[in-house]
Design a protein that fits this description.
Layout (H helix, E strand, L loop, with lengths): L6 H14 L9 H14 L5 H10 L4 H11 L14
Length: about 90
C-alpha cells in the first residue's frame, strides 16, 4: 500500500506543479494530486515517495520526466504544451 503523503508535502508539491506545469490543485483536489504522485513515483522508478519528492523538487527535471509527471497528474486529459511551461 502506498504511503500517505503529508499535507505539508502536498501543499509544497501543489505549488511546484502550479508554477512548473501550470496545473492547479486546490486543497479539495489533493487526493487526486496524491494519486498522481504515487503513479509518477512508480513510473519514474522510485521506490519511495520521499525520494521522488527530493528528486523532483531539488533539480530541474529533464523534459521526458516532466512529461511523465504531467501525464500522471492529468490522467484522461490532454496536455497542451507551452514552451514557457517546459523550461
Amino acid at each position: 500500500m502506498a504511503a500517505v503523503v503529508s499535507e505539508v508535502l502536498l501543499e509544497q508539491f501543489s505549488k511546484f506543479v502550479a508554477e512548473r506545469i501550470g496545473l492547479h490543485f486546490p486543497r479539495e483536489r489533493w487526493r487526486d494530486l496524491e494519486r498522481g504522485i504515487h503513479s509518477a513515483t512508480k513510473e519514474l522508478g522510485f521506490q519511495e515517495t520521499e525520494s521522488f519528492f527530493q528528486h523532483v523538487l531539488s533539480l530541474p527535471l529533464p523534459r521526458n520526466q516532466m512529461e511523465i509527471l504531467a501525464g500522471n497528474l492529468t490522467v484522461g486529459l490532454p496536455i497542451v504544451r507551452c514552451s514557457a511551461m517546459w523550461h
